[in-house]
Amino acid sequence: MDRLDLFPVSTKIERDTLTIAGHNLASLADLYGTPLYIYDRATVDFAAKAYTDALSAYYPAPSHITYAGKAFLCKAIAQWTQAHGFFVDCTGEGEIAIALAGGVPREKILVHGVNKSSADLKSALQDAGTIVVDNLTELEGIGKQVDRYTGKQVSLWLRLLPGVAVHTHHAHTQTGQHDSKFGMTREEILQAAHICKSKNLPLKGIHFHQGSNFRDPEPLIPAIELALDLAKEIGFIGEWHFCPGGGWGVAYHEDELPHPSIENYVRGIAEAVVEGCRVRGLDLPHLHLEPGRSLVARAGVAVYRVGAVKRRDSKTWILVDGGMADNPRFALYGARYSCLPVQAPGRERSERVSIAGPYCESGDVVIEDLPMPKVEDGELIAIPVSGAYHLSMSSNYNGARRPAVIWLEEGNARLIVRRETAADLLRREESL
Ligand SMILES: Cc1ncc(COP(=O)(O)O)c(C=O)c1O
User: Fold this and answer.
1) If we measure between CA atoms, which residue out of 208, 213, 135, 206 comes closest to residue 174?
2) 389, 71 contact by CB (below 8 A)
3) Whole-structure pTM value
4) Average pLDDT, the chain
5) C-alpha of residue 372 to centroid of ligand 1, in Å
6) Contact assessment for residue 195 and residue 189, using Cβ atoms and an 8 Å cutoff
7) Tens digit of each residue's pLDDT (9 = 90 or more) over 64-74
8) Of the listed ranges 57-66, 146-155, 184-193, 271-280, the one predicted with least confidence
9) CB 298: neighbour CB atoms within 10 A?
10) Can you list the domains of the chain with their CATH numbers?
């Protein structure tokens, strides 16, 4: 696979410089500074269409996409979700506030969380259409408050712990295994359904999520079977909702296979649900899929400027102006990336380098051991597949100010998140 294929679909090399949607990355870096995050609209639209086309081709009942806001949420991205009519998965009060600011209507807001605070629950009951209940204690809390806030405008789904995880590159991105902290066991789900019935709570669906960044759909099948068994036991009839989560993977490095096919993933789920409902005599549910990464990761590119190069016998370090503060994924779970220089990206890859940031941690690495052309200080480099779980997990470590984010369309580049300033760092602080 060619390194350029990791980049957004509108990426080209023009006059020996990387461009996205016709915008020269060097000019954008000069204008907005670095580190800079870029999102390409054509790429998010391309992924969105792949999902909606596949759902309408393979699933004969109503179906919906829920964008997992945890991948990256800001007002502009929330607005983009509404251009496609997507639901938005919000983890708690903070993400609900962003979704609302982006104009997401109540019925399209779905709330997740493994230990929702009372503020999260209050906000969910006031402003969301769906709450995915993680545990029995939470259900009890909802039962006490539901009438006060919403008059039961909200639907409840139960989060199942299927006891089967998907294969991801690191245990920290698995959530479906039997000892995971997420969701309810089979027995707890039945207990929760009983409580909902006895308290007349608006139970409308079942959900599970087995992990993030997988490309083998096989483990979905036993989890879908278990969820449908439970749906039958609970007695869902007519309009009910089923969501087998998100987590479909993307390629981060040219060594990986091409980007996994969204069509095959959706088709596999749709066929399993249709057949599973047929054999159990269940009505077909509204099928919801909940992707984050596979919608936005490839659309995002991080642009860094090289500050210094340390060429030693043992290793060559390229030191850039961003790292674990805007992208903690290497430090968290050894994520792999690739990279191209912004100028003359076709140069011969003549040395193996590691790329690291300016932060005071040896784990502040962006890429380890990658063949690269000889880049020198002052040059710009572009890291593809930077659109998911970078800025949403970013920090102010070492006083880092979070980067600006630019939304690119042909003929139009919009600043959608400005760079943080030192004043932003001090905004919440008081003197002694
Ligand atoms: C409940 C839930 N749904 C969806 C997702 C989205 O996963 P991904 O971004 O890998 O598609 C996550 C990610 O952790 C999640 O926890």
Assistant:
1) 213
2) yes
3) 0.96
4) 95
5) 32
6) no
7) 999 999 999 99
8) 146-155
9) 28
10) 3-40+297-426 (2.40.37.10), 41-296 (3.20.20.10)
Q: Is 112 in the pocket of ligand 1 (CB under 6 A)?
A: yes
Judge whether 277 counts as a catalytic residue. Answer: no
Give the distance between the most distant pair of CA atoms in the chain.
71
Cβ of 134 below 6 Å from ligand 1: no
Task: Decide: 156 and 203 in contact? Cβ < 8 Å.
Answer: yes
**Minimal-distance CA residue to ligand 1 atom 14:** 212
Q: Peptide bond before 35: cis, by omega within 30 degrees of 0?
A: yes
Q: How confident is the model over 272-330, as pLDDT tens digits? A: 999 999 999 999 999 999 999 999 999 999 999 999 999 999 999 999 999 999 999 99
C-alpha 51/C-alpha 56 separation (Å) is 9
Q: Give one DSSP letter per residue of 316-380, joined into a string.
A: EEEEES-STTT-THHHHH------EESBSTTS---EEEEEE-SSSSTT-EEEEEEEE----TT-E
Cα–Cα dist 197/190, whole Å: 11
395-400: which pairs have CB atoms within 8 A and are 24 or more residues apart?
Answer: 395/324, 395/325, 395/328, 396/325, 396/420, 396/425, 397/324, 397/325, 397/359, 397/361, 398/325, 398/358, 398/359, 398/360, 399/425, 400/325, 400/326, 400/359
